[in-house]
Design goal:
Radius of gyration: 17 Å
Strand order of the largest sheet: 3-8-7-4-5-6
Shape: globular
Helix content: 25-40%
Order of helices and strands: EEEEHEHEHHEE
Structural class: alpha/beta
Distance between the termini: 23 Å
Number of strands: 8
Strand content: 25-35%
Largest sheet: 6 strands, mixed
């Protein structure tokens, strides 16, 4: 098994109670993340999802109103990578997800974790996109109105996220 694997491939080896060893060949990148897992108790995986990476906190529903409207209209799953949501935004998304109006999954990274800053750029690299940043003169409300890119597959675990890249191995 190991002789035929490329160094560019991920191999996942997990321990568990039992006498057998499980070795899994995966095409996704696994990220150890400290993120708010409350949104992912029922949804563990989505495919063909639209996404945006935001270097900041989504402070008001008004900033993402257009985004939520489109998510409701198209019924496509959406993933927001960010450093937090205001309570108003969090409650709005949770309630609408629960009612089945849309599927919006915010991955709120821990702003106090130094690794989160680098991971946001790593995620952007494997998805072939940029991080929305006020440092570049961008606003969330402007960027969210643009047609968002589509990711292949993302899986959510407690303290981990697996993302299938949209860019080539090169």
């Amino acid at each position: 098994f190991f002789e035929n694997k490329s160094l560019n491939r991920n191999i996942n080896i997990e321990t568990y109670l039992g006498s057998e060893i499980a070795v899994e060949d995966i095409d996704e990148f696994m990220f150890d993340l400290d993120y708010d897992y409350e949104f992912f108790k029922k949804i563990k995986e989505v495919s063909s999802y639209r996404y945006i990476l935001i270097n900041g906190i989504v402070e008001s529903v008004g900033e993402i109103h257009h985004f939520l409207h489109i998510a409701n209209k198209t019924k496509e799953p959406y993933v927001i990578f960010c450093f937090g949501l205001s309570e108003e935004v969090k409650v709005t998304i949770l309630n609408n997800n629960k009612l089945g109006r849309f599927t919006v999954l915010p991955v709120c990274l821990n702003v106090n974790d130094e690794g989160s800053l680098n991971i946001m750029n790593d995620i952007a690299a494997i998805l072939g996109t940029n991080v929305v940043s006020s440092d570049l003169g961008q606003t969330i409300s402007q960027e969210i109105k643009k047609e968002l890119p589509v990711g292949n597959k993302i899986s959510f675990f407690n303290k981990k996220i697996s993302i299938e890249p949209t860019v080539s191995e090169k």
